[in-house]
């Protein structure tokens, strides 16, 4: 069915989520849309439910039978009413044309993913290229603050859209990337979509302001666990998407990155964590994409 289903995974961010919803429910567009909230917080959120009850196109799901951002994204699109899927974070603000701009960019049959503009509140809005995947380092570059509409390699997780038919074709978001902060799950998805021959487009008019809430979400504050998930998931990306000589340069870059963390935090144990997580990531990267049927 023609329209957009907005999927919002959320975790312990009631106030931020309510503010995001206030921007989304007043979107101006000439097509139908719905908002699906996938809440994995420890407690049922009555405030959010009461907000949703005022809008027939807004639904609230409190989930206790799975845990993870990729799972929430897959649950969302599998329960969506419309053909186009828009993923946004629970801590964004946007103008009333966000859905309209994503919809217009997705209408091109050759487009598989649209990455919108992201203006970060706390992180530096730096970079001269948008959404490039550096094959020398297996590093997904940012630069999502820039202007324009052009082809790129990936979108940013807090503001990207796709199509149900594309999600079905590539078997959704890979739940193998759930571990830790679910790093690189949108990068992996976009690279798999690109391999199927679709374009990944950046469209700056589909813009959000990312507040990057300091609490809640799927952050991993423990440095050892963070490095574990970073190395594991980056290794999966290397195993699945990097070939030949670039594998060597990507692994060297990853070792340098972990070394910088180890010396900064004075934790030599991070090197041991690197070995364990690297081997796990390479192994999992050779496995099939995992997408539970909800």
TrEMBL record:
Residues 5-139 form the Glycosyltransferase 2-like domain. The keyword Nuclease does not apply. It comes from the Bacteria. Pfam families: Glycos_transf_2 (PF00535). The keyword Oxidoreductase does not apply. Keywords: Glycosyltransferase, Transferase. Transmembrane segments: none annotated. Belongs to the glycosyltransferase 2 family. This is Glycosyltransferase 2-like domain-containing protein. It comes from Flavobacterium okayamense.
């Amino acid at each position: 069915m023609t329209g957009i289903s907005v999927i919002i995974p959320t975790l312990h961010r009631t106030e931020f989520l309510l503010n995001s919803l206030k921007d989304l429910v007043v979107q101006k567009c000439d097509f139908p849309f719905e908002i699906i909230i996938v809440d994995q917080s420890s407690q049922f959120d009555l405030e959010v439910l009461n907000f949703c009850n005022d809008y027939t196109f807004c639904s609230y799901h409190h989930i206790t039978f799975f845990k993870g951002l990729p799972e929430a994204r897959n649950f969302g699109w599998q329960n969506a009413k419309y053909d186009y899927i828009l993923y946004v974070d629970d801590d964004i603000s946007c103008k009333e044309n966000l859905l309209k701009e994503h919809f217009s960019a997705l209408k091109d049959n050759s487009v598989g993913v649209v990455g919108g503009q992201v203006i970060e509140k706390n992180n530096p809005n730096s970079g001269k290229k948008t959404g490039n995947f550096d094959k020398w380092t297996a590093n997904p570059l940012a630069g999502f603050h820039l202007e324009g509409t052009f082809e790129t390699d990936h979108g940013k997780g807090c503001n990207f859209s796709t199509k149900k038919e594309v999600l079905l074709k590539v078997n959704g978001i890979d739940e193998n990337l759930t571990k830790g902060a679910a790093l690189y799950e949108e990068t992996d998805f976009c690279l798999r979509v690109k391999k199927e021959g679709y374009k990944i487009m950046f469209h700056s008019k589909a813009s959000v302001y990312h507040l990057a809430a300091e609490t809640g979400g799927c952050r991993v504050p423990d440095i050892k666990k963070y490095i574990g998930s970073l190395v594991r998931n980056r290794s999966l990306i290397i195993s699945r998407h990097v070939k030949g000589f670039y594998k060597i340069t990507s692994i060297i870059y990853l070792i340098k990155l972990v070394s910088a963390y180890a010396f900064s935090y004075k934790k030599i144990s991070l090197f041991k964590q690197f070995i364990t997580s690297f081997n796990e990531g390479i192994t999992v990267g050779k496995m099939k994409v995992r997408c539970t049927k909800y």
